[in-house]
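Researcher: Let's do a round of design. I'm pasting the structure tokens now; please hold your answer until I've finished.
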């Protein structure tokens, strides 16, 4: 078998199959491999007319089918299965060849694999792919890490199959070295968690406080999707809420158990944020909200706890409240993206990746789950000021969130008064107030730390670290 395929895909479950078809539809000859050869044959039989495929039934055949430098995409489960595939194929490759991991790998695993393969002259590229099954087939947002040389080889193919923004730009770019691509994908998923939680809270408020039906809320979300909240998640929320269950005739949302599951990338985002010392409270609350929803036994045991029962507003008040919820949702979304981009900046500095935040916003404008109209403004903000520390420091975003804050506070206060949980809205507002405060109670916290652990503190009136001798005369000593 001669090396005629420009790209190869091993692992032909739904994502791998659709990605292979995407490459073929865009004019590339694609080598196919799967541990179960029946999947390889089935893909060619069902979709062979979409482009040029080269089926291979053994690893050796697969590698032989690829032109040099070989580009091999691995689409298997993250963790041990990915390592197993790498160990199987790496001995068959040569210097300059490229292994691409398109799974949801932890970025530290990607860093390890990249280092190990680099020592053998093989490029390893961790690629974050967002957009689900549809995106893989029709154009995802693609976040590749790895060496500059690997992107020179791989980039033109990714740019061809990626989603295109409204200005025609492909939604992919070289994110940075080793694990940078998977790190950015991880944060993308963290923002996705927060975004979905905020939308769910908006729905809950409109349902329980405004008294709207799911169909009415669907109309509301469709209206919001024509303005500044224009996004994929708002769009599909309207579709879900408008759907009626065929078996019962009830709103679909009412027949689904209220237990949200998760695959782990949101947890990773929070765990790594803790390691980096970055406050991602909105993302964390979204992760914990899903966790809380799954503890049915705890929730059942708490059913008798005291608290208010929501009382729906009258029609006029409900309409006004819905407008306030829109303001709160928009402001809270800005905070979620602010926290996510802060984490990317911190990770970039910690791992020396030199990630362009404007470029990240640009490739999230289409294809990915969090694609939204205001990402173009985020891109412009970071392109104009690459040193921008926070989106809340951008003049336009600061003005908008300032205009929204009164309604935002009203919504959170009404939720508390009526006993409706809004951890996302409340965490976002607390983050905003924490940033703008002249002084935080952290001064007291540091004093407590010095009292019980001699952890020292810094003064406002002179340089240096100090410790108070809390016994006796409580004199102060300079700690160096």
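Researcher: That's everything. Go ahead.
Model: Designed sequence:
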């Amino acid at each position: 078998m001669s090396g005629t395929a420009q790209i190869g895909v091993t692992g032909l479950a739904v994502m791998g199959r659709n990605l292979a078809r995407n490459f073929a539809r865009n004019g590339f000859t694609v080598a196919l491999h799967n541990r179960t050869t029946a999947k390889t044959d089935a893909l060619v039989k069902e979709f062979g007319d979409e482009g040029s495929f080269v089926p291979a039934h053994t690893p050796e055949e697969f590698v032989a089918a690829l032109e040099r430098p070989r580009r091999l995409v691995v689409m298997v489960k993250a963790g041990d299965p990915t390592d197993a595939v790498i160990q199987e194929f790496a001995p068959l490759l040569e210097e300059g060849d490229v292994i691409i991991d398109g799974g949801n790998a932890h970025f530290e695993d990607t860093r390890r694999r990249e280092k190990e393969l680099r020592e053998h002259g093989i490029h390893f590229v961790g690629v974050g792919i967002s957009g689900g099954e549809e995106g893989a087939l029709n154009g995802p947002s693609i976040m590749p890490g790895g060496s500059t040389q690997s992107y020179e080889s791989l980039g033109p193919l990714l740019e061809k199959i990626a989603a295109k923004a409204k200005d025609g730009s492909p939604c992919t770019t070289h994110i940075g070295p080793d694990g940078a691509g998977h790190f950015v994908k991880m944060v993308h998923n963290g923002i996705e968690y927060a975004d979905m939680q905020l939308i769910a809270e908006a729905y809950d408020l409109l349902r329980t406080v405004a008294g709207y039906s799911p169909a009415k809320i669907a109309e509301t979300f469709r209206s919001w999707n024509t303005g500044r909240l224009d996004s994929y998640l708002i769009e599909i929320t309207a579709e879900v809420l408008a759907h009626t269950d065929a078996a019962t005739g009830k709103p679909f949302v009412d027949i689904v158990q209220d237990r949200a599951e998760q695959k782990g990338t949101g947890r990773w985002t929070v765990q790594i944020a803790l390691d980096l010392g970055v406050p991602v409270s909105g993302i964390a609350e979204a992760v914990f909200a899903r966790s809380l929803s799954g503890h049915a036994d705890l929730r059942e045991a708490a059913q008798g706890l005291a608290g208010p029962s929501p009382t729906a507003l009258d029609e006029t008040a409900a309409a006004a409240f819905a407008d306030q919820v829109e303001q709160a949702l928009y402001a809270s979304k800005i905070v979620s993206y602010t926290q996510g981009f802060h984490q990317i900046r911190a990770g970039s500095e910690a791992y020396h990746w030199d990630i362009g935040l404007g470029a990240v916003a640009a490739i999230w404008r289409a294809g990915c789950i969090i694609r939204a109209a205001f990402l173009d403004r985020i891109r412009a903000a970071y392109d104009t000021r690459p040193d921008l520390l926070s989106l809340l420091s951008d003049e336009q975003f600061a003005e908008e969130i300032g205009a929204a804050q009164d309604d935002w506070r009203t919504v959170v206060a009404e939720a508390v008064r009526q006993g409706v949980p809004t951890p996302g809205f409340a965490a976002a507002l607390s983050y905003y107030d924490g940033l703008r405060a002249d002084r935080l109670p952290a001064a007291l916290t540091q004093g407590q730390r010095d009292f019980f652990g001699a952890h020292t503190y810094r003064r406002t009136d002179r340089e240096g670290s100090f410790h108070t001798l809390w016994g006796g005369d409580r004199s102060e000593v300079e700690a160096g």
